[in-house]
């Protein structure tokens, strides 16, 4: 039986700036709650902003996962568990050396960048996620950094810097590459949405098999593999579809609501 539904946001629950969160998704959340399900956001987004607002609306007394498992907080954004980013000074010095714009995210929901290395498009990203970014001298931060993002407008700059960053111990890199830019997420080695789900299972006293995960992107793979029921959106990448137990419609075509219906049917059959 599924007791808890963990859900990615972008491409799963949130259908983009034009459509936002479909009303069918909110209706499905309410239908699931009436049937006894609990819900948890499980996103790569930074802690806070619109993601936290949605988390508070869907499960105001619950616990939610941000930063791909590096941040776990309650619905008010108060940190319950976090994974500090190791070797931060070395990572920052490499960004400065290679002149690659970057920002850092902290356990309390802070987001900071250096004034002369502002990530391109940061204003647009702030508008999308709702988490403000502020300039700071990083050596003076009194918050714990859990994640960093590098944004190279010229992918060639990233290819030059990549060997240096790969040599930093105890970190994992997630690359999002296109012909016009390279975006690289840096997190503590071994931390993922799957470790976030394991923490939630312990917190709620559940078996991991009692958790369902709904997702669409590569950063959902670990959670989909470990969950008791993995559901891929119709717009998911092929790797996600390959590891999932069930595939539903596109996020823009009520796919999330379809996923909740499948979970309810799954529980009915299990009874």
What brief labels describe this structure?
globular, six-stranded mixed beta sheet, 14 strands, phosphatase activity, 24% strand, Hypothetical Protein, Haloacid Dehalogenase-like Hydrolase, Chain: A, domain 2, HAD_sf, 271 residues, five-stranded parallel beta sheet, alpha/beta, Cof-like hydrolase, 9 helices, Rossmann fold
Q: Topology, please?
A:
Elements: E1 4-7, H1 23-34, E2 38-41, H2 49-58, E3 63-66, E4 71-74, E5 79-82, H3 88-98, E6 102-106, E7 111-113, H4 122-129, E8 134-135, E9 145-152, H5 155-166, E10 171-178, E11 181-188, H6 193-204, E12 211-215, H7 221-226, E13 229-232, H8 238-243, E14 246-247, H9 255-270
Parallel strand pairs: 1-2, 1-12, 7-8, 12-13, 13-14
Antiparallel strand pairs: 3-4, 4-5, 6-7, 6-9, 9-11, 10-11
Helix pairs in contact: 1-9, 3-5
Pfam families: Hydrolase_3 (PF08282)
Organism: Allomeiothermus silvanus (strain ATCC 700542 / DSM 9946 / NBRC 106475 / NCIMB 13440 / VI-R2)
Keywords: Hydrolase
